[in-house]
Amino acid sequence: MDNRTWRRMFSALWAFDVTSPDRYFTKHVQLVPSTDRKIAEGDLIIPGDISVALDHLYGLVHQERIDAVELRNGNAAKWQFRNSIHITFDKTLDDIFRLFLDWSAVETDDGGKLFNVSMAFRRLNAYADWLEQEGSVLVDPPMNIGDIMKTLDLMKFSFSHDKHGRLVGWHAISDVDMAEYAKLSIEDKIRAFTW
User: Per the confidence metrics, is the pTM higher than 0.85?
Assistant: First the structure.
């Protein structure tokens, strides 16, 4: 999906919140431009084996933590992912890191993959920044499936997978009870969308 399509989809998803100057909406919009598929000069590309790419990604994160400690800039804490909800789904940091590697991969003609570890790290870095700055809404209060499903149902939000196995989400906007939707806080919407 190209950036223009992503931005259109994202704008439609958050259309009801555009008139509300809210820091969560702003942070999400800031994250979108960092998700492009461009390969930068000097990017580390690992062919084939995701476990090798995972080792390299952990190496970049480790180096970033060391640099943050040495610079005493406070950025080391973000790499703890303390606001991440992966544990809620019985997932590990390996699983999160693998998702970012898969997101940065391209398929080769022979069916293999090339993992752009540098791109995965840039995206993971943006995600870690967002979690550290804004992610407390995901863990306080703890998420529970009942509240999340109620919000998703009210928002008429649906999910499926396309022919490439990618998750696709959409609003059935014409079916949304706007009076009830207006009662939802931006935090409820963020929590439901993140779930």
Answer: no
What is the distance between the alpha carbons of residues 145 and 88, in angstroms, rounded to a whole number? 10
**Separation between Cα atoms, residue 65 and residue 59, nearest integer Å:** 10
**How far apart are alpha carbons 92 and 123 in whole angstroms?**
18
pLDDT of residue 158: 76
What whole-number distance in Å separates Cα of residue 127 and Cα of residue 165? Answer: 22
Average pLDDT, integer, range 28-32 = 44
Half-sphere exposure of 51 (CA within 13 A, CB side): 0
Q: How far is CA 85 from CA 27, 53, 105, 136, in A?
A: 18, 23, 24, 10
Cβ-based neighbour number of residue 125 at 10 Å: 18
H or E segment at 106? strand 105-107
CA distances from 92 to 11, 41, 137, 142, 157 (A): 31, 31, 20, 18, 27
**β-strand pairing of 157-161 with 167-171:** antiparallel
